[in-house]
Design goal:
Distance between the termini: 51 Å
Number of strands: 19
Shape: globular
Low-confidence stretches: 349-353
CATH architecture of the largest domain: 3-Layer(aba) Sandwich
Bound molecules: zinc ion
Number of helices: 14
Strand order of the largest sheet: 4-3-5-6-7-8-9-13-12-11-10
Strand content: 15-25%
CATH superfamily of the largest domain: ANL, N-terminal domain
Structural class: alpha/beta
């Protein structure tokens, strides 16, 4: 497996000044470094990228006041970093041109546009080195999940952007090299898709499923009761994986689910075999968790996730507010031996906090609430300016009175101040890009 990977990356690098072999050699070792080594590495990278941004990038020439000191230690550096203003999506929309390195070779940069689930799509560039490191980091996260290079994988994708990138010639060659098959699962209206997916799993001897948790969950519901599907591991990404979804998926496919946290901007984190939080790819990025006043949160405290990219010189992201919330697990070493910090409770977009009739509900309320309700497998809350509708998918053996019971319990929690309707449904509303938002604004 190691040899296949080595050879694959060597060939990849032959396509011209690429960094995959270099990235692989580092990332294989660095996951087991002690904290001192990781901090020393991050300190060096931070000094370099911030110095570069301050000296060359018009936007940061205005927002960063001074260069970091030559002799600073890690703590000095973090303190200094906390004084640099947070970069949000609006800043990027307004100052796109000023965030590009004027000296960069644009032919070597890869233009990106985000899906914009938060309502704020952004444009940016990956530079070559950052993209190569990101790809190798993704493969490392997959390796933790037992999904090694060229293991037969079916990606249940969704959304037109993704479909296009898999259907062109380059995408086809890449999928062939990876032994990766692709099924466009945006429309799941009839039973046909279940049979088609089963056919692919059988014909192509698929061992790995990869995709949105809500899609794999829908599939698991349909396949409930079937045995020996032959899947060995499942990777979920791009949406919050609800505990009840994980449970049913693992039960039906008789294998573990590994959650990944990534976005178009970054490959952020992934679960190891212990499934206790998601290890952050700290060689690529520095995470921070901030409260609503932009003050740092302690371990275990939920807040906004802020990312500083350590590698992207062409379009630096320094203290970027990605739009998700989460918390850092205690700094105790994971049983797997890896020292990379772990994220937990990655959830909701911070802009999705609910305010109805002057009463605010945090984004983490509903996931927490439904976690304790056995009868509900999945949920979606539609938020109107003065009311909300909650759709629930019930377990097959759910209690007959569960809807009434939920109604009573939620009204008690909200003091009867929020008009709410609870409805049973077979499927949740999907965005144009294929994602399901557990909290969806309707105003
Ligand atoms: Zn671990």
């Amino acid at each position: 497996m190691k040899n296949t990977e080595d050879m694959y990356y060597r060939i990849y690098d032959l396509f011209g000044r690429r960094y995959a072999t270099e990235a692989k050699q580092l990332l294989r070792k660095s996951q087991y470094w002690d904290r001192g080594q990781i901090e020393a590495y991050q300190l060096k990278k931070l000094k370099k990228i911030i110095g570069h941004a301050k000296n060359n990038i018009p936007y940061y020439q205005r927002t960063i006041k001074s260069l970091p000191g030559e002799n600073w230690n890690y703590k000095d550096m973090i303190k200094y970093l906390q004084d640099i203003p947070v970069l949000n999506k609006k800043n990027i929309q307004q100052h796109f041109e000023d965030l590009i390195d004027p000296g960069a070779d644009k032919k070597r940069m890869i233009y990106q546009i985000t899906g914009g689930t938060s309502g704020n799509p952004i444009r940016f560039y990956h530079d070559r080195k950052k993209l190569d490191y990101t790809r190798v980091a993704l493969q490392r996260n997959f390796n933790w999940a037992g999904y090694y290079l060229r293991k037969r994988c079916l990606k249940l994708a969704s959304g037109s952007l993704e479909a296009a990138s898999h259907s062109n010639l380059k995408g086809k060659i890449k999928n062939k090299l990876h032994n990766r098959y692709f099924y466009e699962a945006a429309v799941l209206d009839d039973k046909r898709w279940v049979n088609e997916i089963l056919q692919i799993i059988h014909d192509k001897k698929i061992k790995v499923l990869w995709g949105y948790p809500s899609i794999i969950y829908m599939l698991a519901r349909e396949l409930h009761g079937m045995k020996n599907l032959g899947i060995e591991t499942i990777a979920t990404s791009s949406e919050t994986l609800q505990d009840s979804q994980r449970k049913l998926i693992e039960e039906v496919f008789e294998c573990p689910v590994f959650d990944e946290y990534s976005s178009r901007e970054f490959m952020i984190a992934g679960e190891c075999e212990h499934h206790k939080g998601l290890h952050i790819n700290e060689e690529l990025l520095l995470p921070e968790i901030l409260d609503e006043h932009d003050r740092p949160c302690g371990y275990g405290e939920n807040g906004k996730i802020i990312i500083t990219d350590l590698l992207n010189y062409g379009f630096p992201f320094i203290r970027y507010e990605i739009g998700d919330n989460g918390s850092l697990l205690t700094n105790e070493k994971c049983s797997c031996g890896r020292t990379l910090k772990r994220l937990k409770n990655v959830s909701g977009r911070s802009s999705d906090n609910i305010l109805i009739n002057g009463k605010a509900i945090t984004t983490v309320f509903f996931p927490g609430f439904f976690k304790t309700i056995y009868d509900v497998e999945a949920f979606q809350v539609l938020v109107y300016p003065d009311a909300m509708t909650i759709y629930v998918i019930l377990r097959k053996d759910a209690d007959n009175n569960i809807i009434k019971d939920l109604d009573r319990r939620l009204n008690a929690i909200f003091d009867n101040k929020i008009p709410l309707t609870i409805k049973r449904t077979g499927k949740l509303i999907r965005e144009a890009n294929g994602k399901v938002k557990s909290i969806k604004r309707m105003d």
